Amino acid sequence: MSLSFRPNRRSVLKAGMGLTLAGAGLPAAVTPAVAAVAAGQRGTPLCDQAGDSASQQGLGSSDLGIPYYREHDGSWGYVFGDSWTGTRQSGDYIGSPVMLNQADFDASGATPISFTWAQPTGGRAGQLFDYRHDTDNGHGFEVSRIPNDCVEFGGRTYIQYTSVAVWGPPAGYDGSLMSGVAYSDDYGVTWNDYDYHWAGDTQGTNQSLYGMWSFAGIDPDGWLYIFSKRWNGTHRNTADGGAIQLFRIRPDDFRAGDFGAQQNWAHLGGSWQWTTAAPPSVILTGHNTGEFSVKRIGGTYCMSYFDVDMGAICTRTAPRPDALWSIPVPQITALTVPNLYGGYIHPGSASATSLTLLVSQWNSTLGQPYRVLQFDGINP
Predict the structure, then answer these.
(1) Could you count the other beta carbons within 10 Å of the beta carbon of residue 309?
(2) Which residues is 136 bridged to in the sheet?
(3) pTM of structure
(4) Which of 34, 156, 231, 279 has the most Cβ atoms closer than 10 angstroms to its Cβ?
């Protein structure tokens, strides 16, 4: 299959740092810590090697590998983007999203992730959603649906995704068609789409802050916390600005598709508060950011994201989703992992000071690696 629908999805390395942060009502200028604490860690490839566990499940090469906990049986799922049956984007094009599963995860990193079955059936990885590429499926022209995060609770699995209309949008545009949430009641075998979608660029809402989501998880207070930002999966969205917002919703309302029931973390009337009277306010800004991930690990909220301008996977922490976030720390850079992006936090990480991150590597030149790498022991 032609690869022309997916040009230039690789990191852009530029000079310069400096982010601004606003949270809990206290704006502050911060400077990222200057330390590549992951120096020396090379990353363990999880696909794109002949005979590896991914290929045994029918997936040769892919990216993202977004991890989530399958609470119904204690196993783990990994959701990939555009995938091929062969290594280095060779063989047949499978589609996106694609899921591989693992029975047991070793949080120590001593035993790398090994996949033991695939969806929809073991040994035959296939596209999860029922839609066609490079056509209009009833919402407008789309080339692919890219997963941003996955979560399971209450016997239902959810994937938030972005439908991409243009991989190489003009400056100032994000190139998305829409974003949506799909769900599965058989733990990933069959999927349905909620009727409501968040309009994207080619539907008339360029730079929607609902483009990319990360499920931080259900907090002990009973709320499902969700962070979201503009779509920048192309890494070419020059108007991204690193803006991230926060909202929360009751799990039962989310299951029912009552997305209007969300509460928003907003600066209203001179103070930060949870409210339904205003949309979410931007809590983090700075460099353009690609894929991001927020997870509650051992009582601490941990954030990882691809800083497009810096060419690095950075991390931050906070005691609560709506608290002040720590100074960003560059962990893995393009100097050691060329053409990197992604950087998803494994929810089964050993601790908030020893994270497992899944980092993608891709070069648009045919024959180059297209894979996911596992990094362990990351201290944010």
Answers:
(1) 21
(2) 141
(3) 0.91
(4) 231
